Structures are given as structure tokens and as C-alpha cells.
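Researcher: I'm comparing several assemblies side by side, and this is the next one on my list. It has 771 residues spread over two chains. Same procedure as the others: predict the full complex and return the structure.
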Amino acid sequence: MKFRHLFPAFCSVLMIFSCNPDQPNNPDTPDGPENPDEPKKENPAPGVYKFVIPDYSSKASVAGDGKTAWEAGDEILVTGGYYPGAVTVKLTASDISSDGKTATVNLEKVPETTFGTDKFYAAYPAGLVDPESSFSEDTFDFIGTDADLLCAYLSGDTFTFQHVCAAIALSADGGYDGCVLSGLNWEMVAFDKWSVQVNSEDPNFRRGGKTISDYFLRKDFKNGSVTLYFPYSLTLNGGFRIYMRKGNTYPKLFTYSGDVNLKRGEVLALGNISSKLEDYSGPAPELPKMPELKNVTRFDVKEVPELSGLCLTADGSALWTVGDNGWFGQVSFDGKVTKYWTKSADMEGITLDPNTGDLYIANEPNTVTRLKAPYEKPSSWDVVITVTEAKGYGNSGMEGISYYKDDMLFVGTQTSANVWIYKFDGTVVKGPVSLKKVYSGIVEVGGLCYDPVNDWLWVSDSETHKVFVFDGDLTHVLAEYPVNMIHNNESVCVDHKHNCVWVGLDDDDVCAIFRLDFTGLNP
Amino acid sequence: MKKFFLSLAAIAFMFAACEPKTPDNPDTPDDPDEPEEQVDPIVIDGEFDDWAKLDQASVASAKNNADSPWTAVKQMRVYATEAYVYYYIEFDSTEAKDQLASWDEAHPGLPMRININIDGEFTSGYAKYSLDAYDYIIEGSLADKGQWVSFDGTLHQRYDGDWVELLKEGSGMCVGAGNGNKYEIALDRQVFDRVEKKSNPQAIGNVLHTGLRFYTHDWGELSNLPNSSIAEGNGDGWGHLLEVTTVK
């Protein structure tokens, strides 16, 4: 073979290699695996991985305490941060070390793609991880918290788990079916979901999210013992109560006195509490059954500009109404409007003293004025209350007012959802109480109405588009009713005579009153 | 000599084969008779595995801030090619079910806005719901009577203090698909760019900035992305628009 015969072939091969942009070993391409500047990131391969479970920092002394060892059948979810590619590992007895602390598993398949700070992430129990969170990255959305939640990120070949929950463990003789725990000060202790971000750089074991919470944590006994789990932490000022359940009755009560401050990974081991149980004959540990919203009807009141306050007239036949720009008048239950007068004032709420017939009007930012009957003219416009804390609230000031009892008024502001109780003479009796601190689901006070029949305070919140019901002492929330159909619900008025609640819409165009019909409004 | 010419011919053929693709080159895929077949990296079909196969370094994403006022939408992801801007939206699963179920005859949809800034200038334009002002919104619906439908909203430009409608809903600028608690959209850049704007630039640049605003069926506020924690000076919890660089 002569060289001149090979020359064209050599050139052809040279050309083909030099002009193929997808040639995998081309060092000039940015993604080339041999490019020293941008090395290709390799995903962890199938192989042997270890799963290590931690202790609780204060171990319980009874069986049924927090989970501190793997068991055959435990299912662990391993993801690369994308749920559809996740792998569920079911442990067998041979995987688990003699002390139960380490499971060593040969993973024949691992997630193909990785997202987030670290390569792989793991969570236990696998069945409680929300499968609908696809690009989960380093976050696990647990869709239940009645379990010892654990999570980890991969370091080397090992997942070292961390506890998500704190725990209280106890046992009792006497054949109890279950128990209910509640704080002494209406703390939230139960959650239907919990979101956790676990990684090597900036973990967050309290990511928040849409969560339904409860003042009562319920759990069944198993072999005479129970462990209660609380995601992230448990803070109970003064202590807690545990109601012991047999069937549908609660014959015994355990009371723990003293502040409780448990962090995740810590357990309070109460041991056997049988000797500390007391007889109990009080009500079942649950919130009262609340009224059910059945129907909503809209009545336009376009003659009322910027409707911002409602209350029933003395005979309960219509609604006194105020508007932001100083409008005052009456609205019938089917939306007919009778204007009385307008005044240069930012009137945001109105209430009636049933004993005298005087009307009290909340003015933004921080005053209450009294209007004596007859109301045809604002001649008796007396400032009776000035809320000093709300002086700087500006346009986020006083929005709600309601007659309470014994010559006292509730007043409330948008800022911090603060509520006060004032006497007519301007003396503060209580407050400010931030309803946000009582219940994190509320954002502001847009309107108030005290319900003397049930001893409840109804609160309209135009930010969340909800109407909330709090107990009269402002210690806990009882119900929340979404009113998304009212996009700026700035007032609320309870009408027991007609089994309904009136809610006003403050709209730049056409204002309206909405009749919310309930069942169970009257006890 | 004959073999020498054969060698030259072979070399010439190889060079020709390596010539860059130009409009004048009849053998390149840019030939109008033989158009190059573009492979869209994302297919708008309500299946989302193709999002996981993208080069994640080119995907801009924003997760819901736990300390923001919102919980309904968990994250958004955006990926831009020269042909399309793609959006991926993941709702809280409970919220998605609730929102789809809560329509009424007067409000059968689930409104959403795509907010877009195409000029990299953040002081003029609409300065609400984001810490950066933006010039364009595409306002449409993700659902109808409880079912996901294709999002193809109305294009408005913020001009002289008002929203000016540039392109009506259903003009084919966007296509969307939802499945479960997830939704994806492709915005056709060519359609967007061809619409006559009230000011320059007329086209989406190589780098764009974008965000999403979500509403309940009756226009209550549902969510806002990107967002941030409520803080001094940012009492609304708004965030900065996502910066998205076009993949070429």
C-alpha cells in the first residue's frame, strides 16, 4: 500500500473528527467531560448505602418511646430532588445492624437526576411524603405528622438522619384506648402537614406551608403506651393536660404542671402515669360544633360609597352603614339605601349601644366617636376614645368596632390585627391583643362583631378573604369561613333573628352587602 | 495524476461537508425547502418529566417563601429558548383541589397573570406585586369550571400610567396544560415580538425578567411569585422578578 493511497482516507478521518460538534471527547466543548474547567457532575451510582438513625437526646424510659432503631419493613424514600424518580427502600432484617442504628442496603437503582444543594435526600416514613411535590429538591412535604418523621441528605455513602419532631412518651394501666393532649393556653399542638428542608448548607425544619392545625392532639394507645409527636418543637406555657379515653368517654385526666420547651429530637418521658390520673367528668376535649355556612346572597348597594361598617338597627329591621368617605345611612336587608348625611371623616366601623341607642363609630386611624339619637345630623359628634398605640397606624388603623357588654366596646385595627376593649369613657380594659399571635391564619381586622348569644367575636379579614370566629376572651380561634366571593370584606354583623351574618363589600365601583345564611348559629 | 485529483476531490468534499450552515448553502437544514426540525425541549401536554431533563443551570426557579403571606403555589420554574419561554407551576396539592372546586357560574375560571419585563429596566412600568417594575402582563385563566384549560391570555402593556391591550385572549401567544397540582405554559416569543408595542424595545431580549400572580376564581389574591418574607420596607412580601437567560 502506497502512502499516497492512504492520504485521502487520513484526511477524511481528520475532517470528520474536527467538524463533528457532538463528538463526546471534544475538549473544546463546554460540556465535554474532559474539559478541566467544567467537569461533568457525576450522580451517585447504584451500590451500597448506609442509613443511620439518631437517638433522642433524652431517652424515654418506657417502651413505645420515639423511634431510635430501624425495624424490618421500615420504608425510606430516597430522592434526587425530583419525586417521580424517587426510590423506596424497604428494609429487611439482614440490612439492619445488631443495635438497630444502621441499615446497610445495596441499592440496585438510584434516582437518575439530582436537584438542590446535595445529591440525594432521604425521608422516613416514605408513605408520609407528598408524592405531588415533584421538584422537591431538598424539601420534604410530609402529609401527616402522627409519626416520628426523619430526614437526611447524602454525605459520602451515608444518610445520617435527623429527627423532625419532639416527643412525649407515656404509658398507663387500665386498658385505655387512647388519649388527647392539649395545652393550658390554647397552643396549637397538632398539624396535618409539615414541610422540612434538609441539606448540608442551610436546613430549615419549619418551612411552613398550607397547614391545618389543632389545639388537640389525639392518638390511640398501643400495648398500654403511646408516643405523641410534635413537628419542630413544643412550647407549652404552664404545662398540659392529657385526657385518657375509653371508647367515647374521658374518665381520667393527667395534668402536667410546668413549662414545656422541647426541641426536635428531644423526648419528654413521663413513664407510667397511672398513679397520677385524676377522675374527670368535664366536657370532651374538643371545640364546640360551629355554625355551618349554607348559602350566600349578594345585594348591591351602589349608592353607598366605600362601604366599611355595618350594625343592626335597634329593632333589628335594617343595617346602620358607614363609608370611608364619611357617608352615613341605612341599608335594608334587600339592599335599599337611605342616606342620612356625609361628613368629612374616615369612618370605618359602626356599632349600637343597645341600652341607650347611641351609635359608636370607629374612625381611622385611632378614634371612636359617639353619635346620639336622633341621627339625622352629626351634631353630637363626640370623640370618646383615642387609641394611643394606633396613632401612627395611618391608613392601616382602626377598622372594627363592636359593642361588648357593660358599657364596653371592642375596637380593632388592620395593623397586627390588634384588638382592645375600651370603656365608653375612654379607659382601656384590655389590649392590645394581637389576633395574629392568637391564630397565625389571620392578617388584619377589617370589621368586628361581638356575638353575645355565643360569647364569640366575629372578625372580618379583607386580606385573607375570611371571616374568623374567636372566643370572647380572645384566647383561641373557633372557626374560619372563606368568603372569597367578597374581595374586600371590611365589615361583619351577626343577625341571630335571621340566622345569618351580614358582610359588607367595600368596592371602588359597586359596594354590596352579602347575606351569609348559617345553620347552628343559635344554640 | 488521476489518483492525485481523486485525493483532492475527496479533501474538497470533506471541507464542503464541514462548511457552516448558511442560508446560501442548499445542503444545510436552513434551506427553506428542507427546514430544520426543531425539537422542543418541553412538550405542553401536562406531563412534566421533560422539565427534569433540562440543564438545570439554565432553569430559573422560585420557591414560595415560608414567611410570605401566601401558601397556595409552591414554586415556579422558567426556561427560555429562542422560540419559547416555558413556565412550570406547582400548586400546593390541597390548594389546587380547593381552587379548582370553588368556581361559580359568574366566575368559572382561575385567573393568573404572567408579568414580564423585556428591557432590563425596572423603574418604569407597573410597580405593584413585585419589587421590580414590569411593562407587560398576560392575563388569562388556567381553568374553566373546575378543569385545567389551556392558558392563552390577553397581552397588555403598561403605558402612560394605564394598561393598554395589545393582543386579545386566545390569539395563540400561549398554550398551557395542567395535571393534578401542576401546570405548564409555553409563550411563543415570535407572536409576542410581532405585536406592535407602544414603546421600544419590541422584542423579548436575550435576558428577560418575569413573575407570576395568582388569583382565586373571583379575583381574590391567591399567590405571588417570586415572593419573600414580610419585612420592614416590604410589608407585602413581594419578591424580585426571576431573571431568565435564553438558551441558544
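Model: For your comparison table: Confidence is low (pLDDT under 50) at residues 1-40, 59-64 of chain A.
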